[in-house]
Design goal:
This protein has helices at residues 10-22, 33-40, 59-68, 84-92, 105-117, 155-165, 174-181, 192-204, and strands spanning 2-6, 26-30, 47-51, 75-79, 97-100, 129-132, 135-138, 143-146, 149-152, 172-173, 213-216, 220-223. The protein is an alpha/beta fold. A hairpin with a 4-residue loop joins strand 7 and strand 8 (143-146). This is Two-component system response regulator RppA.
C-alpha cells in the first residue's frame, strides 16, 4: 500500500512517515500544498494523509481538486480544527475521515488501516470525468468533448490525456510520461511519445481552438491554456 503524507510540520511529518514505514507502507512525503497537489494528481496512492493548513494549496483544496476530477482515493485529514462547521466543511470537500491534532499514533494507524480496508469498487457510480479549460474527458468510454464535438480516442491516447489533465499546468518530463504509458516490458521506440502527442494534438486541437499541449523543448510537456 502506498501513502502520500502532506504536512508542513517537518518535526511531525518525518516521525509519522517513519512510523508508517515500520508498519509496512510505502510513503512519500511533501511539505507544502503545491508539491502535495502535484504528487496527489499522479493517482498512484492508496491513501492520502493531508494537513488541513498548508503553504500553497491547502489540504482542503487538494481534496476538492481530486474529487472534481473523479479521483476517489481515500483522504484522511490532519487538523487542529475541531468545530462542527469545520468537520462538515472537510467532509463536504470529499474527506473520508479526519483526526484532530494532537493525536495518538495508535489511533491514527487504526484509522489508516480502516480506510485501506474499504472496498474501492463501490465508488463512484457516475462515469469518471476530467475537465481542464474547455476540454472534458470521459475516461471510462475514452471520449473527449470540446466545443460541442465528441472526440474518439484510442486507449493509449486516453491514458495520455488523462495523465496530462490530472496535472494541469505542471511540467511533465518525457521520462515521467513514458513511465506512465508504457511498462518496462513494452520498450517503446525513442519517438513513440512524440508520435502519441502529435496524434492527440490533431484530435483535441481543431483549427481556431486554443492549444492545450505545450512543448517545453528538451524537457517535456505542459497541459492547459494557463
Amino acid at each position: 500500500m502506498k501513502i502520500l503524507l502532506v504536512d508542513d510540520e517537518i518535526e511531525m511529518a518525518n516521525p509519522l512517515s517513519r512510523s508508517l514505514l515500520r508498519e509496512g507502507y510505502e510513503v512519500d512525503v511533501a511539505y507544502d500544498g503545491d508539491r502535495g497537489r502535484q504528487l496527489a494528481g499522479q493517482g498512484v496512492y492508496d491513501l492520502l494523509i493531508l494537513d488541513w493548513m498548508l503553504p500553497g494549496h491547502s489540504g482542503l483544496e487538494i481534496c476538492q481538486n481530486l474529487r472534481s476530477q473523479g479521483d476517489m482515493t481515500p483522504v484522511l485529514f490532519l487538523t487542529a480544527k475541531d468545530t462542527i462547521d469545520d468537520r462538515v466543511q472537510g467532509l463536504d470537500a470529499g474527506a473520508d475521515d479526519y483526526i484532530v491534532k494532537p493525536f495518538e499514533l495508535r489511533e491514527l494507524l487504526a484509522r489508516v488501516r480502516a480506510l485501506l480496508r474499504r472496498p474501492t469498487n463501490i465508488e463512484p457510480t457516475a462515469t469518471p470525468r476530467l475537465k481542464v479549460d474547455d476540454l472534458e474527458l470521459d475516461t471510462q468510454n475514452q471520449v473527449a468533448y470540446r466545443n460541442g464535438r465528441a472526440i474518439e480516442l484510442s486507449e493509449k491516447e486516453s491514458q495520455l490525456l488523462a495523465y496530462l489533465m490530472r496535472q494541469p499546468n505542471q511540467l511533465l518530463t518525457h521520462e515521467q510520461i513514458s513511465q506512465h504509458l508504457w511498462s518496462d516490458s513494452e520498450k517503446p521506440t525513442s519517438n513513440a511519445l512524440v508520435a502519441q502527442i502529435r496524434l492527440l494534438r490533431r484530435k483535441i486541437e481543431a483549427k481556431g481552438e486554443t492549444s492545450l499541449i505545450t512543448t517545453v523543448y528538451g524537457k517535456g510537456y505542459r497541459f492547459g491554456s494557463g
